Amino acid sequence: MKPMKKIYSIISISAFLCFPGGFETDCAASETERYDDARVEEMLSRMNLDDKIGQLNQVDGRTDLKKLGAAIRRGEISSVMNITDRSLIDSLQRIAVEESPAGIPIVFARDIVHGFRTILPIPLGQAASFDPKLVCSAARNTALEATECGIRWAFAPMMDIARDPRWGRIAESFGEDSYLSSEMAVAVTRGYQGDSLADPFSMAACAKHFAGYGAAEGGRDYNTTYIPRRALYDTFFPPFKACAEAGIASFMSSFNDNDGEPATGNRWLLTDVLRGEWGFDGMVVSDWGSVGGLVPHGSAVDKRDAAKQCLAAGCDMDMMSYSYLRNLKELILSGEIDVAVLDESVRRVLRLKSRLGLLDYPYSRRTEHTALYSDAVLDTSCRLAEESSVLLKNDGVLPLGDEVRRVLVTGPMADAAYDQLGTWSLDGEKSRTVTPLVALRTMLPETVTVEYIPALEYPRDEDVAGLAVLRRAARRADVVIAFVGEEQMMSGEAHSLSSLRLQGHQTELLRTIAGVGTPLVTVVLAGRPLVVGEENDLSSALLYMWHPGTMGGKAAVNLLWGHSAPSGKLPVTFPRCEGQIPIYYNHKHTSHIAKGTEGDLSRVPREKPQSVMGHTSSYLDVPPTPQFPFGFGLTYTEFEIGYPRLSSSELPGDGILRLSVDVRNVGTREGTEVVQFYVGRKSASVTRPMKELKGFVRVSLAPGEEHTIKYEIPVSELAFCRKDMTWGIEKGDYMLMAGNSSDNIKGVKFKIL
Hints:
By secondary structure, the chain is α/β, with parallel strands linked by helices. The protein is built from 20 helices and 27 strands.
């Protein structure tokens, strides 16, 4: 067959030669992306069976380049991952376009989860910002950096609902709440994809992992899940549906099975729901090896059987199992798979390449000015690190001021350039990382002495020999700043933990300092919520920065000295101990609701009737409340939030809940508050959460300033999976609540007619 390379027109891209090094976008929803369907159909009509099968095969580029080039030349590869060298990308692309039988370009992909070269805070940290606009702008900057190196497809955002902090991949998630996760996932999608995927500055985003991966039993990665369909619709599906509606280009299936069916081979999930109910017309790629993963799952006898199941289910592209490449031809020739099924998957792959503009210009763009590490990109990263940080405690020591003349810096995360980047920072360079120690030494005036005694070389270090020296130094200091937390490798894929305590002798380090009496500011850099009850008690202030990325050190100094004020809120509940897991704010009503006073073993009498303690859903040895609730976060001032007011207390099912609430800064410093809106009800056709986040607004006020927030929530946003498994709202009484955390809210009643 004659190669298709003549279908390409090498277009001028002079319009793209000059571009800003970073910018903010309004991240408004763009019009639905279109593809050249006629062109796709013409291409499809000219392809033979081998050409088609090759379009469903994705490989890792970190391999023998000679063999890779040969496979591309044979037309066996549609997408290549993990190559970031632009010249190599273009050379491989030239082989695909000019030497392969069909002449179809390759789409180059990468796990770009939270930044490319300039690493942003981990996604869980980004969610703590409650600032979708800033998250979108940061993602746009990431697209500028990545596309400069020829990458046009990113395997992000990851929007698995995560309620078990033992699960390592909670770091990649946006936390426990469906609404917040939806807002953040859509923001990242719009940042990556821009106004048009055909723009060479844009990357195709990928919604992963579809679906239920975050509910792995015991928090163990790759483990089985059991999520009822009602819970899928109510809790786990919304972020994915929101991204489908926002025009995301692709989905990725998940590793887990649910109720006995691996996601990659689940037709109900990939076809009935995703394409049938939601109308998604993009493509689905498997996770790494998950087509072949049906064999160890035990739902396929071999990779031939796995290929047959997964293609029929609606998985278009096989990532790294080669099950499609090696088995689909035989399956089709034998009549076990209808060629029309194959054609539909190939069509979706070609549509993606059409939307990306690769059919017109398949090569990497050329630029006069690099976006890599540009000032604007770095500034946005720093601002996001600041807004992602959550102040959990402050006894008045922060912000630090001119009275501080001698600072003792300690802890294994003070100068951990690699570790502060966090998981999935594949292309970040630790030589570019601004650590807290570097920032303190370069940003503070010469009148401030910075003494550095790490005491522990790394977080798991159990050598306590340096603690005596630390104690003596702490006595000389005006303040001690201890940077503790987790190494990069303690979170992320395949890095689950059974214990959420600080590792090594980090807590002992804090005990040593606290015993001296010098004010202790503890800064935690970690990839997940940790159990920090004792650390909170030992500290004068506790700042949780997650893994903050490249500019984390500068952000830390800005926050500690008050150049900016903390405004982050927890996107996930912090447990008091591992035994409380799972613990999350939007739990359902129960028949025996805890009073909140339970959990004190000293109150348990001896040899009394069992009923003496009452009968509530609680523990005997720990309070039912979390260490820190969802939505919690302090700042350097105080805000008063009034009761919400409604324009009408009775609304039709197609109406809009219009509310207003007064917010006043009653403190002495300018600050930003995140006002959160929750909705709940006591009764429905099925049990429902006590409250659910349905909106939020960031508001910045000067001391004494008051502002009235006006906000609208469509009544349709209160829909859920009803008793008959239909999706919709129900009439009845509801409560609208407003406040600055899930546990500090005021409510007003309303009715849906």
